[in-house]
Amino acid sequence: MLILLLAFFCPSGHSLADDDALAARVAELEARLEKVEQLLDEQYSDDRWKDNVLWSRIKTGMSESDVRKILGDPARKEQAVFMTWYYHEKSNVHSYVWFDEGKVLGWEGRFK
Length: 112
Fold this sequence. Notes:
There is one protein chain. With about 110 residues, the chain is α+β, with helices and mostly antiparallel strands. It has one domain: 2-Layer Sandwich (Beta-lactamase Inhibitory Protein, Chain:B, domain 1). The protein has four helices and four strands. The chain has a four-stranded antiparallel β-sheet with strand order 1-2-3-4, with no helix packed on it. The radius of gyration is 24 Å and the shape is elongated. About 10% of the residues are buried.
């Protein structure tokens, strides 16, 4: 009876070596993905704020670092009542994010 229970709950051919191999493969793929993301960040960091889809990912309450990961570094920053990050080099009318105490309060992202 014990043999039947073991056979039922322990699939044949499965071993800890398989688990270790899978874990190693996942770690390898995660490292490769991180390298690809880093290359993309370096290649498109200056212009990625021009992608309207990325602006749709901004949410109220996000941190400054979250916004930086999505849009990259702003062209300029201004501190008045709120901290404002401007992404368009010349315009104050669009492509900005307002922060209050380091959290997104509002934004206008549009690039044509």
